[in-house]
Amino acid sequence: MSVIVFASSKGGCGKSTSALLLSTELAYRGLKVTLIDADPNAALLGWQDDGGKAENLNIIPSNEANILSDIEKSEKESDFVIVDLEGSANLCVAYAMSLSDLVIIPAKRSKFDSKETIKTLNLVAQQSKAIGRKISYSVLMTQTHPSVRSEGLRATLDSLTKNKINYFHTEIYEREVLRLIVDKSTTLRDLKIFVLKPHQMIARKKALENSADFAAEVLEKIANLSKKKSTPRKAVKKKAQAKNNKKPAAKKKTSAKTTKSKRAA
Length: 265
Hints:
The protein is about 50% helix and about 15% strand.
């Protein structure tokens, strides 16, 4: 079971849409997914309440008070737990990061958004230090254009590479059909039941390919974590449990004879 957290210090970066795309794609592959909506805006819960659904996918609400228990409970029942957090840095975000196997940081290509990405990366670093283990993360470029590589995007990617910041090679491209799945409360695959214009049908197909590529790269990153001697999060938890379960050393008994001899001496 893996816990994937979507985090950003600001909203409007495609965080909820990216979480929904990943969740529905994994669910389509037959994996049981719990999507936790811990964003006060509750966009994903609203999507579900308006009829949005996918086989193997369940969306539940959460908040700062319950996020830890909700993640741990969902982890026992699902192959993947995906958490959509509020676009800010708060305790709920820190708590979720502490239980994550991977933190995905959606980011747009502007200079302003790059600064917000740095804030989120700093939060990951601070939380890693607080819990005593390295939290794996990766930056996800969103709302980019497949045929246009802007100067801002190139500069952002160059900066990530220069500073050795892990990022997805797959980007989530900006497409009209991604707005349609929200407006019509459906998935990319189920969008075909609606009457679409020819260009929308083409865009849907490309968006499906984009979503599949994103999910494949996520699975690859999770697999690489599992190839290590032990998953960092589980290793820390196991170490803590071993420490708690360790019995105190028995006190060495001193015989009356030995005590008497010592007194005589």
